[in-house]
Design goal:
Blueprint lengths: L10 E5 L6 H15 L6 E5 L5 H8 L5 E4 L16 H6 L4 E4 L2 H6 L4 H14 L2 E6 L3 H5 L3 H13 L11 E4 L13 H18 L3 H5 L2 E4 L4 H8 L6 E4 L6 H12 L1
Parallel strand pairs: 1-2, 1-8, 2-3, 3-4, 4-5, 5-6, 6-7, 7-8
The protein binds 1,3-dihydroxyacetonephosphate.
The site of 1,3-dihydroxyacetonephosphate (13P) has 14 residues, from strand 8.
Length: about 260
């Protein structure tokens, strides 16, 4: 695919997973705010646990750093004990929501069909979805990586119109690279990102593949970010462990501005 030479604005998002309760989240947000307020070259978002969202939203106000949910329930409200809706996130000042993270898929039963419902729920609530796709090690070794990613894309994006797609960020997160320290090589990641952009180009008008951002996720650190971000189809990073340490995360943002 040739839509390369990325003019897309880089996007670095930190997924804090089940780390950082309110006090710690506030402290980390304060460090990010100090360094990132006023920078205008990179879109930055952090996804704290639900309970820490209000304090992080308050801390990051006027900093330019956005806040994301890590998950949402497909319904706007109802008798769903323990769940949080997109509407609630939106009311709390959240802009984005991660959908289809591999931990949700593997541990909490988020099937392709559930992921699709959650993407729709994001649009209904006015949240910008960050849709995760990625194969397991077994699937990669069995030569199924592309088949799996294409299936996940078709399910997650299937009911969206071309006009809705630029509101979606995609994140390619190979499961074997998440939390393992085993990062995909820039070439491996680029290859799948190009496949994803090609998949988009086969189905939608050119503004869709040209405009949509595809983030890489899986053991991204300050030390390996530049190599990944220099690839033409890698538009940013979805960062787990390294997003919990201010200097590491800021180093990744800096690599995206270089
Ligand atoms: P790590 O950066 O810890 O590998 O996690 C990646 C991830 O799952 C981000 O959503």
């Amino acid at each position: 695919m040739t839509t390369s030479a990325s003019r897309r604005r880089p996007f670095i998002a930190g997924n804090w997973k089940m780390y950082k309760g309110p006090a710690e989240a506030d402290a980390l947000a304060e460090l990010l705010k100090r360094s990132l307020t006023g920078q205008a070259q990179v879109d930055v978002a952090v996804a704290p646990p639900f309970l820490s969202i209000p304090i992080v939203v308050a801390r990051l106000r006027h900093s330019g750093v956005h806040v994301s949910g890590q998950n949402l329930h497909p319904e706007p409200a109802g008798a769903f004990t323990g769940e949080i809706s997109g509407e609630m996130l939106r009311q709390a000042g959240v802009a984005y929501c991660i959908v289809g993270h591999s931990e949700r898929r593997a541990l909490f039963g988020d099937t392709d069909a559930v992921v699709e419902k959650k993407v729709q729920a994001c649009f209904r609530a006015g949240l910008l979805p960050i849709v995760c796709v990625g194969e397991t090690l077994e699937e990669r070794e069995g030569g199924q990586a592309e088949v799996v990613v294409r299936r996940q894309l078709a399910a997650a994006l299937g009911r969206l119109t071309a006009d809705q797609l630029p509101s979606v960020t995609l994140a390619y997160e190979p499961v074997w690279a998440i939390g393992t320290g085993r990062v995909a090589t820039p070439a491996q990641a680029q290859e799948m990102h190009a496949t994803i952009r090609e998949w988009l180009a086969e189905r939608y008008p050119p503004f869709v593949p040209r405009g949509m951002r595809i983030l890489y996720g899986g053991s991204v650190k300050a030390s390996n970010a530049a190599g990944l971000l220099s690839q033409p189809d890698i538009d940013g990073a979805l960062v787990g462990g390294a997003a919990l340490v201010a200097d590491e995360f800021l180093g990744i943002v800096a690599a995206a501005t270089a």
